[in-house]
Amino acid sequence: MRTLRAGLVNADLTPFTQYRGRPNGRVNERLDERPMADEAQWLTYAALAEKLGVSPEAARQKAVRGRWRRQRGNDGRALVLVEPAVMDRLKAGKRPSREHPDGQVNERVNEHPNANAAVNALMEHVETLKAALARAEATVADRDADVRRERERVEELTRDLLRVTGEAMAAASARDDLRAELDAMRARPWWKRMLA
User: For residue range 104-135, what is the model confidence (pLDDT) as tens digits?
Assistant: First the structure.
């Protein structure tokens, strides 16, 4: 039995070095080694959120959407297995956090050598477009006034046409009455026409 124990103590521990961390995310104290960058890590939502620069709830939602493997640690907190490729991809696509002052964003814009020239060119183009819009609005107003005048003229001509049509109809009716009277007179014998 002593030989067996001595053999275990002196045995090569290299197979155990592959397991670098416990499921609760703590480093194995006996081996005192940290997880390598190319190995998956068990992280709490808070630790994942800290690495990604987001809130713990956002980190939890990423784990849910990505269907990452989850389990409970010894302390009862949820742990997520994060692959290194996933972590690299998330860090690369990470947006700047809200703690960054606005000055950094402005400095980045001002660092671009053609930014001011582009802004000036765009402002000139905006002014050109405003002038074109004002000309178009003036043209539309002139056209509206022309249309209004033509509409009034058409209404006046329509009234005149209706009046003339009424007069023509009255004249035609009078003409028909006179013809009928003339025909009635011609139809009588000549001696009745003389007496009348």
Answer: 444 444 556 677 888 889 999 999 999 999 99
Q: How far is CA 173 from CA 29, 167, 180, in A?
A: 124, 10, 11
* In the chain, where the domains are located: 2-96, 118-195
Q: Residue 136 and residue 121: Cα distance in Å, rounded?
A: 22
Task: For residue 11, give both structure tokens.
Answer: 């045995």
Single-letter amino acid, residue 122: L
Q: Which two tokens stand for residue 8?
A: 């275990």
Percent of the chain scoring above 90 in pLDDT:
38
Residue carrying the six token digits 């010894």: 74
What's the CATH architecture for 2-96? Answer: Orthogonal Bundle (1.10)
Query: Which run of H or of E encompasses 42?
Result: strand 41-44
CA nearest to 76, candidates 21, 23, 28: 23
Reported as a single tens digit per residue, the pLDDT across 19-71 is 444 555 554 444 444 555 567 889 899 988 888 888 999 889 988 988 889 99
| Residue for token pair 């990452």 | 68
Tokens read off for 133? 């819009």
